[in-house]
């Protein structure tokens, strides 16, 4: 018996068609305002006791970005829990698991390493058998530190972990670099990891090419080969949240029949506080999602599709101008806009 085309295209086929039509015919600036709605913030119900502990607070880059207790990555300290200074290490790292039923790929969202968390980062990568690590920021942006350089150009030890650069890989991904490292702990069981560094994604903004996210995700999956994918920017919620949201929304809408993307963003935020930080990042995620649905044959690349791409380009240009203008005007020593300030483009 021949299967109905709707069955082939997934459970949420009709909902996806309706959503896309609504999104395409909306004013993008207005459509994305839901990102800031009080029903989807959830700050008051988040349990985050561990990031407030005295020994863990110095490991948090931003005071207003919480590490949710229920989904946090717990460091097992398999190769010793005493630091160089003789004090006991805690099991804390500012990182959270992102999972969803029927989403076979597992993700970790984490903040960009600081000087005092580099060893923890390599421990997490080894412990959780991470196959690909995606860095979506530069170490310095607009004169501010977003992340320390936590990898070696040759070979270096970070606590009990010896990390060796074994290969620099050519890539078709524009303004991106791929490195392969070997991580070897005292038991001499080596694991390799591929490090993707993306250099052209500005803080609070988004790339101008909606297909870039798809291509990046494909490459990460190809190199990770079924293992965990971890990603960080500076806070580990904006650019990183947008990266993870693409597949999360795809599975949620196609496999679970969810009709409203923001409900799925809210699910991610219950696992990683504040994920998808700005309106333009949400818009980018939705446009990239449309590209993914089109690639899978669920949506058609037609005039409606072209309309979305055109609207996104206009919205991105206006957003860039507004953020650039405000950044020049705002003389502050704060390392980054606070979370509640990142949505200025729709204010």
From TrEMBL:
Gene3D superfamilies for the chain: Protein tyrosine phosphatase superfamily
Limits of the Tyrosine specific protein phosphatases domain: 211-283
SMART domains: PTPc, PTPc_motif
Domain Tyrosine-protein phosphatase: 27-292
Source organism superkingdom: Eukaryota
GO molecular function: protein tyrosine phosphatase activity
Protein name: Protein-tyrosine-phosphatase
Lineage: Eukaryota, Metazoa, Ecdysozoa, Nematoda, Chromadorea
């Amino acid at each position: 018996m021949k299967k109905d085309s709707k069955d082939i295209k997934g459970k949420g086929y009709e909902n996806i068609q309706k959503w896309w039509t609504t999104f395409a015919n909306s004013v993008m600036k207005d459509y994305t305002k839901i990102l800031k709605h009080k029903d989807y913030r959830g700050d008051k119900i988040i349990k985050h006791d561990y990031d407030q502990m005295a020994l863990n607070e110095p490991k948090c880059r931003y005071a207003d970005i919480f590490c949710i207790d229920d989904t946090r990555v717990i460091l097992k300290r398999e190769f010793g829990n005493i630091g160089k200074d003789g004090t006991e290490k805690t099991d804390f790292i500012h990182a959270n698991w992102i999972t969803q039923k029927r989403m076979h790929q597992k993700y970790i969202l984490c903040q960009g390493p600081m000087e005092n968390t580099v060893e923890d980062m390599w421990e997490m990568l080894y412990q959780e058998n991470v196959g690909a690590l995606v860095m979506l920021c530069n170490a310095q942006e607009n004169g501010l530190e977003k992340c320390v350089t936590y990898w070696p150009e040759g070979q270096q030890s970070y606590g009990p972990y010896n990390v060796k650069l074994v290969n620099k890989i050519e890539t078709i991904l524009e303004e991106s670099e791929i490195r392969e490292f070997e991580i070897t702990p005292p038991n001499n069981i080596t694991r390799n990891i591929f490090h993707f560094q993306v250099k052209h994604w500005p803080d609070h903004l988004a790339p101008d090419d909606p297909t870039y996210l798809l291509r990046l995700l494909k490459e990460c999956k190809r190199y990770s080969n079924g293992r965990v994918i971890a990603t960080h920017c500076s806070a580990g919620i904006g650019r990183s949240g947008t990266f993870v949201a693409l597949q999360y929304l795809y599975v949620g809408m196609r496999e679970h029949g969810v009709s409203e993307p923001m409900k799925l963003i809210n699910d991610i935020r219950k696992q990683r506080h504040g994920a998808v930080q700005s309106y333009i990042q949400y818009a980018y995620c939705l446009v990239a999602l449309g590209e993914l649905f089109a690639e899978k044959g669920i949506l058609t690349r037609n005039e409606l599709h072209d309309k979305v791409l055109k609207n996104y380009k206009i919205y991105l240009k206006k957003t860039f101008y507004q953020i650039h203008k405000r950044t020049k005007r705002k003389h502050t020593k704060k390392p980054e806009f606070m979370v509640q300030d990142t949505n200025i483009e729709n204010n």
